[in-house]
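Researcher: Let's do a round of design. I'm pasting the structure tokens now; please hold your answer until I've finished.
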């Protein structure tokens, strides 16, 4: 009886699981933990500890003297003696040949730039001109007198654009140029046309006044010259009358 019970008792005893070997690709937890501890200790030994320093970073106080000294230059735009009558942002186009089509006769609308188109009035002689500079570069792209003969025509297919022709001096040479300006909306375009034509009327009065003043001065000069001539002629006539009287007296004495 005792011998038959011993196998059962031995069979009920638990068999301990292997801890150092496994057929799976994942290592046993105990082995993995041991390997991780070893790696971390080696990494900690490989990285040196940072030295704690309380020293503050020194700021550079070096000064460098420029090799070339540039003097401040007062740049004048040529608009110092003028006041702004009108100013509005728009996009400018010019009808003509491109640089690649010079001499070919092929003309088309070319964008010239975006900027503020302004009507300027000189404070002294009251003359007005249309001036527009390109944004950022400040290059002059429109510069012509506000001639009363200029006619603003509506651009085909657009209610916010106007077309006109003028003798422009933006390039330094007087060139007849066809312009087109496009605004943000039709209200701005209509306001531009209204002010443009009103200032044309004022410019016409200024030109008429200048012509009349010039003519009056010339007339005064001519009148003064004629008065001088008539005075000389009267003096010459008086001298001639005196000579004639002397001659008549001498003849009477001889008789």
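Researcher: That's everything. Go ahead.
Model: Designed sequence:
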């Amino acid at each position: 009886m005792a011998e038959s019970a011993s196998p059962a008792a031995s069979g009920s005893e638990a068999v301990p699981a292997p801890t150092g070997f496994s057929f799976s690709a994942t290592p046993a937890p105990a082995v993995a933990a041991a390997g991780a501890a070893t790696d971390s200790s080696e990494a900690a030994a490989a990285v040196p500890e940072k030295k704690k320093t309380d020293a503050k970073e020194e700021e550079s106080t070096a000064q460098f003297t420029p090799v070339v000294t540039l003097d401040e230059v007062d740049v004048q735009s040529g608009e110092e003696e003028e006041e702004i009558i009108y100013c509005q942002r728009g996009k400018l186009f010019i009808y003509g040949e491109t640089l690649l089509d010079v001499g070919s006769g092929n003309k088309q609308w070319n964008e010239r730039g975006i900027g503020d188109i302004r009507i300027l009035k000189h404070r002294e002689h009251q003359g007005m001109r249309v001036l527009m500079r390109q944004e950022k570069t400040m290059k002059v792209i429109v510069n012509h007198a506000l001639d009363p003969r200029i006619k603003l025509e509506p651009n085909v297919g657009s209610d916010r654009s106007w077309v006109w022709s003028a003798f422009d001096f933006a390039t330094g040479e007087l060139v007849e140029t066809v312009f087109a300006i496009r605004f943000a909306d039709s209200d701005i375009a209509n306001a531009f046309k209204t002010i443009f034509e009103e200032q044309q009327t004022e410019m016409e009065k200024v030109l008429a006044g200048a012509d009349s003043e010039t003519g009056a001065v010339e007339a005064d000069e001519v009148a003064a010259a004629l008065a001088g001539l008539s005075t000389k002629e009267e003096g010459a006539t008086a001298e001639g009358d005196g000579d004639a009287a002397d001659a008549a007296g001498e003849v009477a004495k001889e008789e």
